Amino acid sequence: MSDERFEIAPEVKAEIDLWVAKYPEGCHQSALIAALLLVQQQNGGWLSNSAIQATANYLNLPEITAFEAATFYDLYHLEPIGKHKISVCTNLSCTLRGSDELLACLRQRLGIGPDETTTDGRYTIREVECLAACAGAPMCQVDDQAYHENLTPEKLNALLDQLDANDAKEAHHASE
Predict the structure, then answer these.
(1) How far is CA 31 from the centre of its chain?
(2) Global pTM?
(3) From 101's CA, which of 38, 79, 94, 153 has a CA 20 to 30 Å away?
(4) Tens digit of each residue's pLDDT (9 = 90 or more) over 53-86
């Protein structure tokens, strides 16, 4: 467990404190799930060992408690991920309606499969269980935010084109 020491940013500590305040005195563990998410956001979308340790220490919890949560839940990433995380639902409804075609499309276009990141660090693909949008199957979620339903490979390619265009605009504005 030896990576560089991680410091939780003051603004993240303030957000964690808001979560802690929602629970009775002495129930810091109840805020652990939210705290790990906040620390993961601060750390570029993933939890290093030292980030998990820092979270446990801040909440005054045993480190093993934080590690158990971080390794149990699918919403945490224990390795660096790409700028854009594409989570493709592969539960029954999505599989029956074509999620395999979506994964094949992503593999062809990006050159990676599930749980892999492009060499340029732009995309990570995840296979996930039910995202609770079965009526819109097949579907994916982008960057833990937007749901994209009733997807076809063509619609998925258009979505990737839009992400690429947005990134190009961002890069252009950053260089000005």
Answers:
(1) 19
(2) 0.77
(3) 79
(4) 999 999 999 999 999 999 998 789 999 999 999 9
